[in-house]
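Hi P.,

Sorry for the delay on this. The queue was packed all week, but I finally got your sequence through. Input first:
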Amino acid sequence: MMVGLRVPRIECDELWQYVGCKQKRVTRENVAVKGDQYTFVALAASTKAIIAYHTGKRDSENTDLFIRDLRERVLGTPEIGRLSSLP
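Then the structure:
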């Protein structure tokens, strides 16, 4: 596990995917586990090492879980930015 890291800059982004079926076909019974899902990713900018990731619905609960996990792995207060798009 990557913990106790000192990195000057962290880049964060999210990747969209669907699980089982697309969101418009999700039923009430499987709304938590199927349809749109996002993988939140945090990379050390200089090494491109994946520091933390979390997959779940795009909501405040999952975002908070991702950020809390990231906070527990990094020491200090690194600059946080968004991953740049590929050309």
